[in-house]
Write a structure and sequence with these properties.
- The protein is of the alpha+beta class and 566 residues long.
- Helix content is 13%, strand content 27%.
- Helix 3 runs parallel beside helix 4.
- It is globular, with a radius of gyration of 23 Å.
- The structure holds fe (ii) ion.
- Fe (ii) ion binds next to loops.
């Protein structure tokens, strides 16, 4: 286990408080002025009426990443006058509180919306409250706003992170090293592709799992925005209409302007890139949210007033938006492709249209039916997923083969809408105006690596499992115990270009170059996947036992190009 596992203390940025407080009214980092006034202010802090000490501190982009950002955190008890300070500016935080529907535990979170910032600038900030136990030396860190216009920048991504506290189901020490890996690459921001901490699998202690997740991430997420999307494991019983209360309460995300569905999907623009974050729980066939396997019922704490949830119950939310998300997606993609300042469209969602994991979930026809035609029409360049705990890259795909799948139970033909590769030459440079590249990045930190991939035993071709129908709970061979079936169909995965069989852990690093003469005036994104070889508890492909490791080495690098707009 890494040293910081289980350590509930907020970690500190290497920047000194003197640096942060020294810049007067703007908060922009500078090197003058004294800390006297700030010290006097913090001495006035009092611990009264509960513990308002900030923890789980994390950043997300505001409506315009060049000028706005949100600082969010939690505290063990209700905070008095929770606030962020940037130079002489004091930004009050909005309280958002909920009571976990299973444990009955109260959770207090705070969100300070910071606007009026300068593009491409570094700011120091302080997070505190009147009853901050660290009021004399409050939490400080720095962030950088997005650049304005066609500027180069870097972002990173993975999903399926979990926490370093191995007391929790699916948590593992690699989760701490994964956060450190983000920091080591110093990206402008990080995309966290769903299945954040698997609190739903630890249903009686969900807030404690979220707390370990938030405090582990703070090492990086307090220094740069971490932009999440919901996965199937964000769907929790008795926590809101889709089970997202734990998730939505902790994150303030850009407004999608769709009434009733805030935070579930959103978009933001940085430089020449439109980022679109989706909730695939709304379209996938697979039933993989909260589930009571039995034989015992799940009984919420008496104080919640919630009834017992019987064995065999799952929380299945496919179709919850009634088409509102897909309509929003089409509007957003159309506007993006119509905007001459946008070259790239990058989609983030948890579940996969193109995964050939053998031990994991596989691909889902729901995404292929509802969203891939839109990705084709509007030339989405890149789709970033999680869900399967491995690394897989597709060739650029466009259109679909309608006669390539078969039912696993019967062998009968089934239409899996198999994505059609526009090339099967793995040249290392791909023009994504011709097809969309899908990356499976479920390689964050959970203890269940899935780096074993399907092969058709008849023709030795790569093979993918595909969900073409809902796998609702059914009785298992054990009386009173229920199970959910694996994917029902399979296809030869002609779209699969690269699979990492050495480890299920890694991080993808994306360098956006708005103008690159070496690609004939095309704009380009260089992608490098770094992986943590040896981190698998047990490598499913080789049986080799490993342990968490801080060593991330290069697995592969490739370049996406497309004609420059404007
Ligand atoms: Fe998942």
């Amino acid at each position: 286990m890494p040293a910081k596992s289980d350590d509930p203390r907020p970690s500190r940025s290497p920047i000194s408080r003197r640096q942060v407080l020294a810049a007067g009214g703007t908060g922009l980092l500078a090197a003058t002025a004294s800390t006297t006034r700030a010290a006097a202010r913090t001495r006035r802090a009092r611990v009264a009426g509960g513990d308002g000490t900030p923890e789980q501190i994390h950043l997300t982009w505001g409506e315009n990443p060049a000028t706005s950002l949100v600082v969010s955190w939690a505290s063990p008890g209700p905070a008095t006058r929770p606030r962020v300070r940037i130079g002489q500016r004091v930004i009050p935080a909005e309280l958002r509180q909920y009571t976990d529907g299973i444990s009955g535990e109260a959770v207090w979170t705070y969100h300070a919306r910071v606007g009026g910032l300068r593009p491409g600038a570094t700011y120091g900030y302080v997070v505190t409250a009147d009853n901050d136990g660290n009021a004399a030396d409050p939490f400080t860190a720095t962030f950088r706003t997005a650049p304005h216009g066609r500027a180069a920048f870097r972002f990173t991504s993975f999903g399926d992170l979990a926490t370093p506290n191995t007391a929790w189901v699916l948590s593992y020490g690699q989760s701490a090293y994964a956060v450190d890996a983000v920091e080591s690459f110093q990206p402008l921001f990080h995309l966290l592709n769903g299945d954040l901490c698997y609190a739903d699998l630890n249903s009686t202690v969900q807030p404690a799992v979220w707390r370990d997740f938030g405090n582990n991430n703070q090492t990086s997420a307090a220094n740069r925005p971490w932009m999440p999307c919901p996965g199937n494991h964000e769907v929790e019983f008795d926590n809101g209409p889709q089970g997202f209360t734990s998730y939505l309460t902790r994150y303030t995300l850009p407004d999608n302007h769709v009434p009733g569905f805030g935070g579930r999907w959103y978009s933001f623009c940085i430089g020449s890139v439109l980022f679109v974050s989706l909730d695939a729980d709304d379209v996938v066939y697979q039933d993989a949210g909260a589930f009571v396997t039995g034989p015992a019922a799940l009984t919420p704490a008496a104080g919640t007033g919630n009834p017992a949830i019987g064995a065999g119950t799952s929380f299945y939310i496919r179709g919850y938006s009634g088409g509102a998300q897909t309509a929003w997606l089409e509007r957003t993609l159309a506007a993006g492709r119509g905007d001459p300042s946008v070259d790239w469209i990058i989609v983030q969602m948890h579940q996969c249209a193109c995964s050939s994991s053998a031990t994991g979930n596989g691909s889902d026809l729901g995404i292929r039916q509802q969203w891939l035609p839109l990705f084709d029409r509007y030339q989405v360049d890149l789709v970033l997923n999680g869900h399967d705990h491995d690394y897989e890259r597709s060739f650029p795909v466009r259109g679909a083969d309608v006669d390539a799948g078969h039912e696993l139970a019967t062998g009968a033909a089934v239409n899996t809408l198999r994505p059609r590769p526009v090339t099967t030459t793995d040249s290392g440079v791909f023009d994504t105006s011709r097809g969309t590249v899908h990356l499976i990045l479920g390689c964050g930190g959970t203890d269940a690596p899935l780096d074993e991939y399907g092969t058709d035993t008849a023709d030795r071709q790569r093979q993918a499992k595909v969900f073409t129908q809902a796998n609702r709970p059914v009785p298992s061979a054990t009386p009173g115990v229920f199970t959910r079936a694996a994917a029902d169909a399979a296809e030869d995965a002609v779209w699969s270009a690269k699979r990492d069989t050495l480890t299920g852990y890694g991080i993808a690093v994306f360098d956006v170059h708005p103008d690159r003469e070496d690609f004939g005036g095309h704009t380009s994104i260089t992608v490098t996947q770094y992986h943590a070889v040896g981190a698998d508890p047990v490598n499913p492909a080789t049986g080799t036992k490993g342990a968490p490791t801080p060593d991330y080495t290069e697995f592969e690098t490739f370049t996406l190009v497309r004609p420059r707009r404007g």
